[in-house]
Write a structure and sequence with these properties.
Keywords: DNA recombination, DNA-binding, Transcription, Transcription regulation, Translation regulation. By secondary structure, the chain is α+β, with helices and mostly antiparallel strands. The chain contains three helices and five strands. 40% of the residues lie in helices and 27% in strands. The strands form two sheets. The protein has a three-stranded antiparallel sheet. The longest helix is centred in the N-terminal third of the chain and has 20 residues, at 19-38.
């Protein structure tokens, strides 16, 4: 699902709100989440999951073309941990696996 798919789905569900207003609301929520993560805050949405920042330590990698060692610096990356309700909803979508 893309951002425009989300906007269209919300606009269809809430017909009293225009598509433009729905687009603005989605943008506002995503911008607020991005800003919070950029400031190092944790975001928790009950039943869905939580977003946080994880630290990746510096490491040594290799250039795939030359095989030369390259130092990869430390960096901060966003991390998502799904909530129990989301994990269970996704798990129900799995087709039954035949173990015979």
């Amino acid at each position: 699902m893309t951002r425009s798919d989300l906007v269209n789905q919300l606009a269809e569900r809430f017909t009293q709100i225009t598509v433009k207003d729905t687009e603005y609301a989605v943008k506002t929520v995503l911008d607020a989440m991005s800003d919070a993560l950029a400031r190092g805050h944790r975001i928790e949405i009950r039943g869905f999951g939580s977003f946080s920042i994880s630290r990746r330590p510096p490491r040594v990698g290799r250039n795939p073309r030359s095989g030369e060692q390259v130092t990869i610096p430390e960096k901060l990356v966003p991390h998502f941990k799904p909530g129990k309700a989301l994990r269970e909803a996704v798990d129900k979508q799995l087709p039954a696996v035949d173990k015979t």
